[in-house]
Amino acid sequence: MSEAVQDILDQYATTSSGEERATEFREYRRWTGDEPRLLVAEVAASTTGQQFISGVKPAVERFQATFVETDRVDSFDSLAALEIDDEDLREVFTVRRNRTVLLEAARVLAERPEEGDLESLVGWASSADHYRYDSDPIGSISGVGPSSFQYLRQLAGVETIRPTSTVTTLIESVIAELDSAPLDTSTTARTIASGEWLSFVSSYSPLEIDRLAWCAFTDEETKRATAAVHETTEKPE
Question: pTM score, two decimals?
Fold first, then answer.
């Protein structure tokens, strides 16, 4: 362990709840619970850069009301069977890219050998290689980049890091305080690798570092609004 890195990360941890936020992902204690159709829909909605509160959440809620609660889509298999230009689906996700990611990811997961949909998602997420994401059956879907790829793995409960702006800011803050370290944010792969190195030399897991960065470098209004969603939204059965 590096005491210097640990001390730096601890400074940010005192003003955030990275460990608790990571546990929310591990234990599916977020607003979508452990409903795999909604977890994939959340990632699909995020692929066009929408904000969580104003864009992603409303889209997933529309999907839930139109397809999940009505049992029109009761599995990845039935989700994958939808047409890309289905009228109801177009009302839920107005951007074709979102629909493409949703349906193609469902198709990939429906074809896995696990018994249930959540097990399929977790099985994929646990074995997926983020350094070769573009050769992965989900990573190669048009519209899925490194951040979306990692986001879906996080939602499945995997200990991993997204190459987000907050993670980049945290890593660059550590760089500024150390004399030398193998840290680099010039590419998404190097950003992820740098976050993994921080985890290796500290007591924080990769997911905890990701959430610590989000808590430390996200504005207070966004953090309060996001926390309220996860605390008050009724979880799907």
Answer: 0.94
Terminus-to-terminus CA distance in the chain, angstroms? 42
Q: Quick one: tokens of 20?
A: 């608790």
Decide: helix, strand or coil at residue 72: coil
Lookup result for tokens 């193998």: 182
Can you tell me the mean pLDDT for 163-168? 97
To 5 degrees, how large is the angle CA 181–CA 184–CA 186? 165
Task: Tell whether the torsion through CA atoms of 60, 122, 138 and 82 is positive or negative.
Answer: negative
- Residue ranges covered by each domain of the chain: 3-25+161-231, 30-156
- Look at the chain and count its residues: 237
pLDDT in tens, 186-231: 999 999 999 999 999 999 999 999 999 999 999 999 988 998 898 7
Handedness of CA 75, 78, 82, 86 (dihedral sign): negative
Phi, psi of 189 (to 5 degrees): -65, -40
- Supply the pLDDT for residue 234: 47
Cβ pair 32, 52 in contact under 8 A? no
Tell me which CATH code domain 30-156 carries.
1.10.340
In 10 A of CB 132, how many CB atoms? 10
User: Amino acid identity of 85?
Assistant: D
